[in-house]
């Protein structure tokens, strides 16, 4: 038997992950321990509220959820009763025997396995110590259970990838699965895992999974009422299917609730700004870094996904960096003007051609690139570049060479003019 412990800061995420598996028909809820009612007499909300109310007794806890998977050898096909017995013995030995917890049996892998969902907050607000829980308690419990139940020992099993997979391991594809469930899986995995300070920054992340949060146009009823819709996008970024209200999801990702995350994320992500800035600087200093596409590829290899915001004419007016390593999202101008869309484009565009700029919310289109235009001067923080006169225009070069140099007007006193003659002192011989 192999036991995997996954502490987290969201009971709802762990709970909804398993409940969605049940709805998809690839899992079954087989047991509820230490609940006041029998499993058959409880609704989905009742099961979740029991865990949430207990976790709320310690609002300062950074981690309030424990998600455990117990994985068995493919040849070990046990009855439901034996699966429940093993789960209960394990939870008792690792210190969660008195906690309310749910046991799900999953059927979406090549080996039998259980998912256990509970909270590490005890009645009264005391926290169960999770420090080195795997080494201190889980490993001894696993080995004892293997002996007591005659299980195949973990050391004797061939190596498998038992790692708990994220709820959204792939992009949402319209029509492949239920739209609401597919969007919910993405939101469950991402909303509490990343630091973002605005809806645009959140959409830069969601867009990678073909999902977008939409406030509606300014004159729409959704916008006036402060509502939010979630849409599935096609590969071109266009919305497809029917939008779903935020209030229709379990975790209630409404605009009002997201605004609380914006405030918190805007502060938390600041500690990772330097990493993103330095990564961009290093990418820009690489030899041959002469285009925006090359920069985006270099950042992608460092774990930073670059999202360009464009208008209907394809003019780039904004840039957002999604750092998957620090799980933080930054608007380019937030890092610095040199990292905004204009700052980045100015590096790759000739100096005669202005980069796209915003004027009263409207973008100035880029003219076509004329031939033989010198490189732009270097910008602070982006290395060194030089500007030289065109070799293909001898007339302009000759004119430049024939122009007189312009000296400075000020000359230090000790370098100017002739020295004053000293007056001879007359010697009085009288």
Automatic annotation (TrEMBL):
Signal peptide (UniProt feature, chain positions): none
Record region (Disordered): 356-430
UniProt domain MobA/VirD2-like nuclease: residue ranges: 17-151
Biased composition (Basic residues): 416-430
Pfam family, one: Relaxase
InterPro entries for this protein: Endonuclease_MobA/VirD2
Compositionally biased region (Polar residues): 384-396
Full protein name: Relaxase/mobilization nuclease domain-containing protein
Species this chain originates from: Candidatus Pedobacter colombiensis
